[in-house]
Amino acid sequence: MMTVFQPRHQTHTVHVRYGENDVTIGSQCPIRVQSMTNTATADVQATVSQVMTLAEAGSELVRLTVNTPQAARAVVQIREKLDQLGSDVPLVGDFHYNGHKLLTEVGECAQALSKYRINPGNVGRGERGMENFARMIEVALQYDKPVRIGVNGGSLDPQILARMLEENRASADPEPPSTVQLHAMVASALESAAAAEKIGLPADRIILSAKVSAVQDLVAVYRELASASHYALHLGLTEAGIGTKGVVASAASMGLLLAEGIGDTIRVSITPMPGAARTEEVRVAQELLQTMGLRAFSPLVVSCPGCGRTTSALFQQLAAQTQRYLVEMTPRWRADCEGFENMLVAVMGCVVNGPGESKHANIGISLPGNGESPVAPVFADGEKIASIKGEGENADLIAERFKELINEYVYSHYSKKDKNL
């Protein structure tokens, strides 16, 4: 069989801990899903609620904006309330401009956070910038915290860029300025990591990122970064966009890098649709990793797009209801079962591919298309286990019975109790 993916780029293993929860990051570990709150961190209750929601959706690290003394003090309260609610998700502090002051002046915040994110382009210029950066690294050493050194295309250190543009102009074969900017991002990340190591922060406490908004640029930057170092790498577009554009851009860029073995953590930085849940970015990240076969989080639904043969409303309703059911049941199944996350569920719309695809899934249903017998056969592991009859366009009867069969399948195949017998 042809191998599509390249082996994982070898990187250091970084431990991000809170309590008994040790989220390991690196090439020997699962690719981790991260997210970030969009609440004002000083609003403790709103932030706690969103952190809980993101963690319950599967975010293994949650990042908070820490931009004011009020926000820094609120981090301590947020951590305490999360503890009371039984959540041990590690919190990451996102610092720009004044991180050196906040981490120094609010030591409780520095201790409550599990990781710091530092943007070297926003720590100050020249000698003052080096001092500010060093102070944050010293705090990380004091409290034994890992650090993500995160370079952004929109806030790149102008001194590094100016230096490299000048070197490029003097070159016998100069590159386009846009390409030099990407090289400068890599240089900024690597120079900052080297400076952190010189201060005393070990390489296995450092994670690097170099984020931009264009798909091709992101791929180019991370290829260069991966070839030049063995630091753990965090992937993500800086601003992916809204709706399908954000999802497609994230999948196109990170999917390509992940297939090349590059990337140890990811975040899908999509703009939520008005009224949409913040957890959308978590679900997209999970589905990206799962569809690529890199991790499993929840059973996946495979369903056909529909055509003139299908009774569209019926199979669309059933596919949507089945997807919601799998998401809702995953936390409950996770407590009682093991391995069900790899399960494939098929919801097909007519006899052309329906029975075949349903037989190839762990469990699948083939709905009747136009002109077909009004019976929906259900297959489990290639064998027919039931036939369900519905009434006209009403999917409720079929959906409820199909849900029952899915639940029975999960407990009969993945129950932890059965494995212990």
From TrEMBL:
Pfam families hit by this protein: GcpE (PF04551), GcpE_C (PF26540)
E.C. code: 1.17.7.3
UniProt: [4Fe-4S] cluster binding residues: C304, C307, C350, E357
Domain IspG TIM-barrel positions: 21-286
Domain IspG C-terminal: 301-393
Pathway annotation: Isoprenoid biosynthesis; isopentenyl diphosphate biosynthesis via DXP pathway; isopentenyl diphosphate from 1-deoxy-D-xylulose 5-phosphate: step 5/6
A Gene Ontology molecular function term of the record: 4-hydroxy-3-methylbut-2-en-1-yl diphosphate synthase activity (ferredoxin)
Keywords: 4Fe-4S, Iron, Iron-sulfur, Isoprene biosynthesis, Metal-binding, Oxidoreductase
InterPro entries in the cross-refs: Dihydropteroate_synth-like_sf (IPR011005), IspG_bac (IPR016425), IspG_bac-typ (IPR004588), IspG_C (IPR058579), IspG_TIM (IPR058578), NO2/SO3_Rdtase_4Fe4S_sf (IPR045854)
UniProt keyword Oxidoreductase present: yes
Necessary cofactors: [4Fe-4S] cluster
Reaction equations catalysed: (2E)-4-hydroxy-3-methylbut-2-enyl diphosphate + oxidized [flavodoxin] + H2O + 2 H(+) = 2-C-methyl-D-erythritol 2,4-cyclic diphosphate + reduced [flavodoxin]
Cofactor binding, note field: Binds 1 [4Fe-4S] cluster.
Family according to the record: Belongs to the IspG family.
Task of the protein: Converts 2C-methyl-D-erythritol 2,4-cyclodiphosphate (ME-2,4cPP) into 1-hydroxy-2-methyl-2-(E)-butenyl 4-diphosphate.
HAMAP family with a match to the protein in the record: IspG
Protein's name in the database: 4-hydroxy-3-methylbut-2-en-1-yl diphosphate synthase (flavodoxin)
Organism encoding this protein: Parasutterella secunda
Recorded name of the encoding gene: ispG
